[in-house]
Amino acid sequence: MENREIKKVLIANRGEIACRIIWTCQEMGIRTVAVHSEADKEALHVKFADEAVCIGKPPSSESYLNIPAIISAAEITNVDAIHPGYGFLAESSTFADICAECNIKFIGPKPGIIKMMGDKVEARRTMEAAGVPILPGSPDPIADAREAQEIAKEIGFPLIVKAAAGGGGRGMRIVREEKELASQLETAQNEAEAAFGDGSVYIERYIERPRHIEIQVLADEYGDCIHLGERECSIQRRHQKLLEEAPSPVITPEQREKMGLAAVKACKEIGYSSAGTFEFLLDEDGSFYFMEMNTRIQVEHPVTEMVTLADIVYNQIRIAKGETLSYTQDEVQIVGHSIECRINAEDPVTFVPSPGKITAFNLPGGPGVRVDTAVYPDYVVPPYYDSMIAKLIVHARTRQGAIRRMRRALEMMVVEGIKTTIPLHKRIMEDERFQNGDFSTKFMEEFL
Ligand code: MV4
Questions:
Q1: What are the residue ranges of CATH 3.40.50.20 in the chain?
Q2: Delimiting residues of CATH 3.30.1490.20 domain(s) in the chain
């Protein structure tokens, strides 16, 4: 196999994921370069990297999203590769293209694939062609109200209008009856135009109480691909996930194999390489439908790592080096149960961000507890970025054991000086419907 040398990696990110990437690089003997904004001089990723480069002012647009500044830092430090983490430039095909032009390996799939998956209409069409189940809907962007009415006649109501350039729930409109269709279509188009500069929308049959289930895949550059099972991500609020678990309490081994095989087959057909995630909607009758594909490492990747013993960042780097996958599908086993609680610097009732100084801090430990974080005592959480300050992850033999372990770990986690979502997670762990695995994406609407 043709191998690319990766001796030094620049991490184009901050916070816990930058630290997470550094941990694996260190284990692999790869040197690391941190980039940081002026607000992040005291950030942990800066302290743990071998080198650090300041790339601009505190706002993301002037630092972590500043492509020329990041490429300059990569050139000055002579790195072989850039790991983008999640968010920021992780799904920018433009950034991946520029990295390639500069002979820097972008740790992720090919730019053309990132671009294709960014267009939700094209992603849907591609998945349908690859045999992945999709919901009945429009094969192309909707031209006008008349076309919308024709499609509605075929798929019925309720239906959902989604932005082609959207994702993560922005620019969606649910339509429950014919007489609302034209006006809701126009609203969705206007919102999409305002939010993304692209007013293209498409239509799908609406599932009332779905679960959000996603499949983690790993694919090398030679057409081999495996899946690492599913994550259950239904517990979310306003399209922000609050906690995730693996495996899903409702997915059977047969269902897992069916969803996994569909994802693997699709990866092979489109020439996908690197780690990736297939998001599915699971209907109450057990049917699953493709929603979106994420071409990056995800926030919730640790729950998969816990139940499979895989290091997903290690696999991303191996694949980027041009190596083959290090295990076969038969060697992947799901052992026990893992839950991740996202600890945000937010008011646990209003979800208003709560940046500031952490005056007291204690991390839980003990059997089956993992904490991915970049904060420490006396650290000042800056107001400029995402409010997630830690991920508390547990692993146990059973789901009930994992819930007990999470309750214990949440009790032992101390963060003072700022408000956090720890109290909210304690309440969710005590909820009977959560404990019974009896929930959908509507869980939080019914919980609060
Ligand atoms: C849907 C749906 C029901 N039916 N599509 C939300 C995020 C975006 N990726 C798509 N989303 C949804 N699409 C059809 N045809 C319900 C949602 C949805 C949702 C999906 C996953 C997790 C949380 C959600 C919360 C509200 C709506």
A1: 8-107
A2: 136-205
91-122 confidence digits (pLDDT tens): 999 999 999 999 999 999 999 999 999 999 99
How far apart, in whole angstroms, are the C-alpha atoms of residue 203 and residue 154? 11
Q: Which of 130, 133, 293 is nearest to 204 (CA)?
A: 133
Catalytic residues: 296
How many other C-beta atoms lie within 10 A of the C-beta of residue 346? 22
Around Cβ 409, how many Cβ atoms within 10 Å? 24
Ligand 1 atom showing the smallest separation from residue 205 Cα: 15
Domain 136-205 has CATH 3.10.180.10: no
- What is the spatial distance between Cα 376 and Cα 378, in angstroms, rounded to a whole number? 6
* Cα of 204 from ligand 1 centre, angstroms: 11
* Listed residue (415, 426, 424) closest to 375, CA to CA: 415
The answer, yes or no, to whether any atom of ligand 1 lies below 6 A from the CB of 52, is: no
All CATH 3.30.470.20 domain ranges in the chain, comma separated: 211-447
Phi, psi of 11 (to 5 degrees): -100, 110
Kindly state if the Cβ of 173 falls inside 6 Å of ligand 1. no
Task: Tell me, using a 6 A CB cutoff, whether residue 315 lines ligand 1.
Answer: no
Is the distance from the beta carbon of residue 169 to the nearest atom of ligand 1 less than 6 Å? yes
| Number of the ligand 1 atom closest to the C-alpha atom of 292 | 9
Q: What is the pLDDT of residues 352-394, one digit of tens each?
A: 999 999 999 999 999 999 999 999 999 999 999 999 999 999 9
pLDDT of res. 143? 92
Residue closest via CA to ligand 1's atom 11 equals 169
Q: Assess whether the C-beta atom of 242 lies below 6 angstroms from ligand 1.
A: no
CA 224, CA 264: separation in Å to the nearest integer? 9
Joined tokens for residue 266? 């699709």
- Spatial separation of the C-alpha atoms in residues 199 and 186, rounded to whole Å: 9
**Mutation test of ligand 1: which of 121, 172, 191 has the most ligand atoms closer than 8 Å to its C-beta?**
172
CATH hierarchy code of domain 8-107: 3.40.50.20
211-447 belongs to which homologous superfamily?
ATP-grasp fold, B domain (3.30.470.20)
